[in-house]
Design brief:
29% of the residues are buried. The chain folds into two domains: 113 residues, Ferredoxin thioredoxin reductase catalytic beta subunit (Ferredoxin Thioredoxin Reductase, Alpha-Beta Complex); 42 residues, Rubrerythrin, domain 2. The strands form two sheets. Strands 4-3-5 form a three-stranded antiparallel beta sheet, with no helix packed on it. Strands 1-2 form a two-stranded antiparallel ribbon. The chain is mainly alpha-helical and 172 residues long. It has seven helices and five strands. Strand 3 and strand 4 form a beta hairpin. The protein is globular and about 55 Å long.
């Protein structure tokens, strides 16, 4: 446990930053400011505790590689928004929920159990040597938003969802 308690200024600064980034990418933060501030506070506490902003509604292991799928924005956000109108922790909501035309629904946990997690993060099928030999550069996929790019290394930050380099996987 940590004794770190972020200041209201730190929470508000990050909430505003997340809100701007969300809107730029076509997402929305939950309009309930008190609720959202509590979640942002949890992100700041987890960043201080683990060194990365893991989802405050899930139990992180403290091992960044093991928790890549739950670093905010988590790998499950887009599917949760599509299916339920919000992500698991309800930090991000759909336009319908934001406009009051939809309601917040319970979102089931999509994260695989720890013993299955390693298998879930692997590509469905490995590319063949023949297909790889025809490409000039490897293709990288952002595991958060699906962005694809062909280059020697994945980008430092995803231009779409702002996920860091370690959230990319070799696609082809």
């Amino acid at each position: 446990m940590t004794d770190f308690e972020p200041s209201s200024e730190e929470v508000e600064k990050l909430r505003e930053q997340l809100g701007r980034e969300a809107e730029e990418m076509g997402y929305h933060l939950n309009p309930d400011l008190d609720f959202t501030r509590d979640l942002v506070c949890g992100l700041l506490v987890n960043e201080k505790r683990y060194g990365y902003p893991s989802c405050p509604c899930r139990l992180a292991s403290g091992d960044r590689d093991e928790d890549l799928d739950i670093i905010c924005p988590c790998d499950y956000r887009d599917q949760d928004l599509s299916d339920y109108g919000s992500c698991y922790c309800a930090l991000y909501v759909s336009g319908d929920v934001l406009d009051g035309e939809g309601e917040l629904l319970p979102v089931p946990e999509r994260r695989p159990l720890p013993e299955v997690r390693g298998k879930a993060s692997r590509p469905l099928s490995a590319p063949s040597e023949e297909s790889l030999s025809t490409l000039s550069y490897p293709v990288w996929r952002c595991k958060v938003c699906g962005y694809l790019c062909a280059r020697e290394e994945p980008p430092g930050v995803c231009p779409i969802c702002k996920a860091e380099m370690d959230r990319f996987e070799l696609f082809l």
